[in-house]
Every structure is written in C-alpha cells, then in structure tokens.
Structure prediction request, 263 residues.
Amino acid sequence: MEENKKFKLVSSKKTRYLLPNILTLAGVCLGISSIKFSIDGNFSLAVTLILFAAILDALDGRIARLIKGTSEFGKELDSLTDFVSFGIAPVFILYFWELNNYGKLGWAITLIYSVCCVLRLARFNLTKIEETEEWKNNFFEGIPSPAGGLLILMPLIYELTNLNLGLDIIKFTPYLTILIAILLVSKIPTLALKKISISPKATVFLLLGIGIVFIALLFYTLETLLIFGVIYLMSIPVSIIIYNKQNRKNLEKISDDSHEDIL
Prediction:
C-alpha cells in the first residue's frame, strides 16, 4: 500500500527557519497597518504599531541565531521589511500629520528620508567585518533604521503626550527628519551591543531593568518612547568616544603584532 504523503510547507529539517521569518512578516504587517491608521487620524495607534515592529525587528534576528535558523532568504526579507516598516511607514505618518502642510517641500523631505533609509540598508547588507576587527560588531555605521524610524516620530510623540514644556516642538519636525536622514547614511558609529558579555551577578539587575522598561512602556508608552529617544541621541557622542578608543587599541595591537613578526 502507498503511504499517505503529508503536505509540508518546508522540510522537517528546516522548520526552524519559519519562526524568525514569521516575526519578520508580522513586522511588515504592523508597519503597513500604521500607515492606514495614520490616514484615519489615529496617530497614537500608528506610533504604537511602529514600536511593536521595532521590537519584532530586534527579536527576529536574535531568535534566528539562537535556534540556528539564519538564512540568506531571512536576511533579505529582514532588509525589505525594515525599509517598509522604518523607511516608509514612520515618515508617511509624519507626512499625514504635519509634513503635508509644507506642500512640495514636505513631500521632498519624505522622499529624502526614504531614500536615505534604503541606502543605509543596502550599505548594511554589503558591510563585511574582518576577523581582526570583531569588536566592530558592537557598533552600527550610522543609526539603524528602526531607531531612525522612532526618532523622526519624536515631535509627534511629544504632541501626543500632552506635555507642556513651553516648546513648540512641531516646528522642528522637518529639520529633525532631515537630520535623522543624514545620520542614517553617515559613518558615525552608534552602539549596537550585539556581542556584549554580562556578569552572572548582573543578570538579575538586567532582568529587573528590562521588566521596568516593559512596565513603563505598558502604562506610559509615549512618555517612555520620548525619554528613550532623547537618551539615544545623547548616547551618540558617547558611542563615538568608545569607538575611537577601541579603534586606537586595535591599531596598537596590530602594530605590536606586526613588530613582533618582523623581529
């Protein structure tokens, strides 16, 4: 008798590739949905969906590496998703909220940001780090697209929080968008923290900190996003200092090794 053949989406040996890609596809659905809600005028929900898309973007790669489900397909899918969720959706939200008031200039700013984001992603895919420079894995070249997508939304987030600091933040929207677009394609090092070692004694405090962050996001989502945005911008000069310091150490080490080889 013939054995019944069961339908399989992928072979049983490759099922581990599904979960990261499902998370990636969920992220692009959130990004596209945020555009829809911004058109409807529900900017608070639109911003929240971008936040969830950023969280999924942070998880899919780590989960893929954890379960050994990385693939070239997943890498390309992740880049395409990032462009939609963080290169198009956030700036479209801004356009429907404020940039459309600037007419052709507002649309030009929208296009400039999207172009800078796709250039940043293309450069990221082609970046290869040599074995002698493994420490560079802890840094991005320019700000990553998820961070950029959230940073350009800071004026909108500020308006949604109803904070009264006596600042007319809305006027800075086009300038901030251009600034973040430049930072996307810049070569300024920013912290990635992909390969950071944590002491077992500090694990409890790390988990406590993560718990506090999630609680803050749950009850004070917009206010927490605003604070993190400000902290991230302030961390860029610190990143540059740390990067230059490690780069000098690496150059000194290479110089010493080559000197020993000559001797």
User: Anything to note?
Assistant: The chain has nine helices and two strands. The chain has a mean pLDDT of 83.
